[in-house]
Amino acid sequence: GSTSVGKCLHAHFHLGKSESDEKVVLCAWRFRRRPRGVMAHAPVDIAALGLTGTASLAEELDKKILVVLRDGKKIVGVMRSFDQFANIVLEHAFERVIVEKRYADVPLGLYVIRGDNVVLLGQIDDAKDALTTTTLLTEVSVDEILEAKAQAEEERKLKARLSHHLSKSEPLDLDG
Asked: Can the keyword RNA-binding be found in this entry's annotation (predicted)?
């Protein structure tokens, strides 16, 4: 993406490769006040730029992330791309379904998430993720977790209907 830095510097950021074949963010800049301009490329530390909004997603490129959606789904995958609307492309994505103390990972493959559905996004540390899931949760089959999820949803709906019904009924008269 492009951004104006100060009043006289215009910068354009893009992914490139360093001499050691590492992915780096390159910054091409040009001074606006000079007619002929000065163009240069240099590796840039994205975190040091203090980018805000969607531009800050550049820090998460090619990293394993967890995305929590508005409907409560938890999607995990490697972030490969994003745009100015925070639409995100995840590779090797899966939905982590957790019901009580059981979980399963439902494979999704390449997955596109619309930006306005994102509630929370963060990087995952594989070691901590493995430790947390093995100590706190029990892994089960996809079929078993989907059945448990459907049952939990049915129980939630029943509780909501019962609560709604009780709130509309007449209060009990304990005096008479």
From this structure: yes
